[in-house]
Structures are given as C-alpha cells and as structure tokens.
Design brief:
Shape: globular
Number of helices: 14
CATH superfamily: Aldolase class I
Strand content: 5-15%
CATH class: Alpha Beta
Number of domains: 1
Largest sheet: 9 strands, mixed
Number of strands: 9
Oligomer: single chain
Helix content: 40-55%
CATH topology: TIM Barrel
Distance between the termini: 47 Å
Length: about 375
C-alpha cells in the first residue's frame, strides 16, 4: 500500500529534472551554432550555412518536443558507429576491446533509412564513429541528402583522399574530426609509426580547401601537459582547426588504468577550457566535464543515444547493452526502449569520472552499465 504512492513523487521529480536539462541542452546547442558561425566568419559560405542550420535547430527542437508530448523521448544527438572495421590498431582502443561482434553490419539502405528517420524525429546532430567510419565510403553519399543535420565524423584521417576531400568540401554539414594524441612521439606511439606525418599533410589539405574541421585529443595522464597546453592549441588553430574535442581516457582494457588522468589533472580541465574559449577562435568540448552542466552523463537518451554497427540501440559507445535492434525496428519504436527508460529514471545512480575520485578506481570509470560488467583483460 505504501510503495506505489511513494514512487510517484520520485517520477514526477525526475520528469521535472528532465525538462530542465532538456532546456539547458537545447540552449547549449544554440550556443554551439552561434559559436560555429563566429569562428567561421572568414569563410562566408560556411558561416551562411551555420546560420541556416541554426534556424533548422529551432524547428528540430519543436519536433522533439512534439514527440515528447506523445511519449517518445527523442534526444538531439545520435552517435552511430557505422562499422567496427578499422585500418589501424591503436593501443587502448575501446572499440577493439568492447566490440568483438561477428554479426553483419547494417546494410547501406538500412543505414540510410535510420538517418532519414532520425531527421523526421528532430535529431539535430549525428556523430559518425567506428571503427573507422570512412571504411564505409558510401556514408558521404547519405550525408549529402540531409544538409540540415550536422554530421561529425570521428576519423583517424588516413582515408581522407582526393575523393573524400572533394565530398567534404561540397558538404558543409559534414565536419571531419581527426584524432591526434599530441605531437609525433605521442601520436605514433599510440597509432603507429608515420601516422603523425601523414596527418599533417592531410590537415594541410583541409586547410587549403577551407574545410571546417576539428581534432579529437584524448586526454591521458602522460599526454596531459602536451595537449592541455596553450602553445599546442595555438599551433593547431593556425593549421585551421575550428573545433576541439577533448575526451578523457576511460580504462576499458585491464592494464591501462594508469592512462587515466590524475585527480589534479581532471580538476583543472574546466578552468583551462574556459581560458581557451576566451583566447582562441575555436569551439572546445571537454568530456565528461562539460556534461556536469546537465547533471552528469547524457547517455541513454538524456542527450544522446548510440547505435552499434549491427544496429543495437545502446546507452552509449562504452556500454554495449541493448534490448532492441534497428535492423527490423523503426527508430521511433526503438527509442521507447524500457532498458533506456530505466537508465534515465535512475540517472542519479550513474557513475561518471569525478575530479575527486581516486585514479584507477571504479569511481574513475564510466557508468554502472560498464563498471558492473567490467572483467578486465
């Protein structure tokens, strides 16, 4: 008799919190587009594109709100790992350690269908990941059909040849985000000998073509002083980089716990990002520290969802658990997943890296989906 009435206030409170973070996230996305407009002001056609896209974002927000009123929780961001294949074998790669599926990747037609469904639901950003997403070159034929959506392609950059570069130049809604680990020593140590030099040439070509591009700099304990450094960032902005993603390394594989940034390092990131944003004409996204503005992890549909290469709808790339697959299920139906809803309703129990957590502890991990199932090895 007492348990059912007691549960109701908690659910109402959770709905109120969800409304609050949704408004805050929506505001932040608007800021992102206006920032993108400002940093691309020297390229009028790119700036005009971001202006048009900012207008689309308002419409997309209204579309998501409409679905929310009908009981369908649609996040503004979708992360889609379109393949598990990769042309590199980087040390500490989370995908290689978590994704050992032998199932077939979704077909190009189904991939195209999912992206069309995402647009109809009001999803504004699609992050294309892998593996190496450019292994599936057909993706650039699909992105061209949806100029309103921003596609961020997280890539090792080595497959950006003349054909790919031509398509990136034509599609201003597609933003390549190239991975670097620092200078030559740090990059080649993790990604393979000679990778750094090749990427310098590719970045030069992107700059020459006035392509809006970014860099992903995974923050580890050993490279912290290199990449969280004013001089390093300045050099990259001079090379044409307009957006920086700085995710903190998450220890997926046993034996890499000492790659995780220290307590002191993590505690300093927010302040350093603030100074970078005021000094440089570029966008800076630090994860997970920026998520704290929204009350923590944005996975499971709070801010984004993840689709695996074989079509599983999952909380995030680091949590390979699912109760629904998109091979034969519409995205709208899949978003009503009971599994994802349960995670959202128990969000405060989720565990994200904290500045005061001991390095190498479970508290320094990602979330319960991962931490409770981590076996190491």
């Amino acid at each position: 008799m007492t348990t059912r009435p007691a549960a109701a206030p908690r659910i109402i409170k959770e709905d109120e919190k969800n409304m609050e973070y949704s408004k805050l996230l929506g505001k932040s996305l608007k800021v992102f587009f206006w920032d993108a407009l400002k940093v691309s002001i020297k390229n009028p056609s790119q700036a005009y594109f971001f202006l048009k896209t900012a207008i689309w974002q308002r419409r997309a927000s209204r579309i998501r709100a409409g679905w929310k009123s009908r009981g369908v929780n649609v996040p503004p961001i979708m992360v889609y790992s379109i393949t598990d294949r990769c042309n590199l074998n980087c040390k500490g790669c989370y995908n290689q350690n978590l994704r050992k599926s032998s199932k077939e990747e979704l077909s190009s037609d189904r991939m195209k269908g999912i992206i069309s469904e995402a647009k109809e639901l009001g999803i504004s950003f699609i992050v294309l990941a892998g593996g190496e997403p450019l292994v599936r070159r057909e993706i650039l034929n699909i992105t061209g059909d949806h100029p309103e959506i921003i596609f961020l392609i997280f890539t090792n950059g080595l497959l950006i040849d003349k054909e790919v570069l031509s398509k990136l130049t034509q599609q201003k809604n597609v933003v390549p985000i190239i991975s670097l680990e620092g200078y030559e020593e740090e990059t080649d140590e993790r990604r393979g000998k000679g990778v750094y030099d090749v990427l310098q040439r590719i970045i030069g070509r992107l700059k020459n073509k006035k392509t809006f591009f970014g860099l992903s700099l995974t923050v580890t304990r050993s490279n912290f002083d290199t990449i969280i450094n004013r001089g390093f960032i300045k050099k990259l902005t001079l090379l044409g980089c307009k957006i920086f993603f700085l995710p903190e390394y998450t220890a997926i594989r046993g034996g890499t716990e000492d790659w995780v940034p220290t307590v002191k390092q993590r505690a300093s990131i927010a302040g350093i990002m603030k100074s970078f944003r005021s000094e440089f004409s570029a966008i800076f996204v630090a994860l997970p520290s920026d998520e704290e503005e929204f009350g923590g992890c944005l996975s499971a549909g709070r801010g984004f969802i993840h689709i695996s290469a074989e079509g599983n709808l999952e909380p995030c790339p680091f949590a390979p658990y699912s109760d629904t697959n998109l091979k034969d299920t519409p995205l709208k139906v899949a978003l009503q997943s009971k599994f994802l809803k349960a995670i959202r309703e128990n969000h405060e129990g989720c565990m994200r890296p904290r500045a005061d957590a001991p390095s190498g502890s479970n508290e320094n991990g990602c979330n319960p989906c991962l931490s409770k199932n981590y076996k190491g090895g």
